[in-house]
Amino acid sequence: MFFIDYELPWYSRYFLFLDAPFRFCFRHLFFYFQAKSIQKYTGVVILSKAQKRAHMSIALLESIPILGHVVALFDWLLFHKPLRLIHIDTTKTLIDECSAELHFMIDSVLPFYKAVITNQGKDPLAEAKKLEKYIPERFIEEMKALSAVSEIPYESILLLNTVISMLELASSSIYAVSKDRTTGLEAREFATNYFPSLGRSHHAVDVDNSFKRYDDMSSYKPKLSTRDLLRTLRRVHYKATIHTVIADTNARKLSVAVGCDFSANRPLKVFKAASLFGTNEEVLGTHKTMLARNLDWPMAYFAPLTRLFVRKGSAQFHTTAMIHAPGFLGGYTGMNEHGLTLASSIVPSKSQEGIPNQLLYRKILEEAKTIHEAYKIINLSQPSSAMNVIIAGPDGIMHAELDPMRRKVGAISVSFSSFQS
Q1: Where does 97-220 show beta strands of DSSP type E?
Q2: Most confident listed range (63-77, 183-197, 395-409)
Q3: How far apart are the first and last CA of the chain?
Q4: Structure pTM?
Q5: 8 Å CB contact between 58 and 28
Q6: Domain match, 178 and 43 both
Q7: What string of H, E and C letters represents the secondary structure of 50-99?
Q8: Does residue 38 surpass a pLDDT of 70?
Q9: What value does the mean pLDDT of the chain take?
Q10: Are 366 and 325 in the same domain?
Q11: Helix (H, G, I), strand (E, B) or coil at 138
């Protein structure tokens, strides 16, 4: 069973002891009811009957005054799983560190996404095979090695790494700020998704009101500080967030929070350059640059599965640090040893044949040192999904729109270039 603290508004952290039973109680109820909802609409069993009974029983115990504090304490001691940093030297390292999480992804989470695609009248494996030919050979070999060591069929690993590209999704807000060291001029780039400000409303894309969050973001001018960037994210977007990341590209530092539903309200865990890349040496560059992102995704089970994976580089490829769940070879947020950082915001679109975006982002971080080199890789690639990508580094910031096939909603093109670039 996987657990993680449920999140309440930011001020609740000052009353941590008093609200702990209620936070933990809500967490268990959240997992329980989301599992029931998924099973009702797709037939996929995320949690077994025993696991659902355990969630409900603990929630009831934690709702009892005084006793709830004792139960919450044991709950935290036994089941609390903070975000972990994992250095992947070999495929076996991944299995040793994340075997249970990987199997949960394959056995419980993947069937849900397969059911969604099947309900769209598509064959998930056939769709995955269409994308396979666009995946770089080194990633194919890595998936085969993961399959061999974990004894999970290769087709399941392939599906996990392509399934997100088959779905029509919308998620995330990103804000990057850069200051030229010579002129002192500041530049800002941001992207957000198609939901009203603060967060999702009934988990539905709302094109008519999506400009509100964009307008809110454009009204804020955050400074180059974690506090300012985090405050901006909290003001415009905190609901349904499972990852919150603040990246300092010069210090090569990542500050990360994960949660079931309100990660933007949680304290950040700081990963310094020495733990990621072996040295705390700063990359000065021509600009001082920071990037902030919220990833919203209405799937609570991704939160306790989240890890920060560091893959050591070689003579041909840079060392990378990417945030995602075990089994994914790439990710939607990451940084490399040179401070180059990227984050994406998904645009609702009809997918096309091409490289899955999360693998494209890993390819960029492994092969590019500057934002201009990153942009060249994007221009030479055929992505499978439409996304906004903000690339930030010690040489500045850049906003790229990956737009293979925009989905039309009435007369409006559902793409950020309409009113959100």
Answers
A1: 173-180, 186-191
A2: 183-197
A3: 41
A4: 0.86
A5: yes
A6: no
A7: HHHHHHHHHHHHHCCCCHHHHHHHHHHHHHCCCCEEEEECCHHHHHHHHH
A8: yes
A9: 82
A10: yes
A11: helix
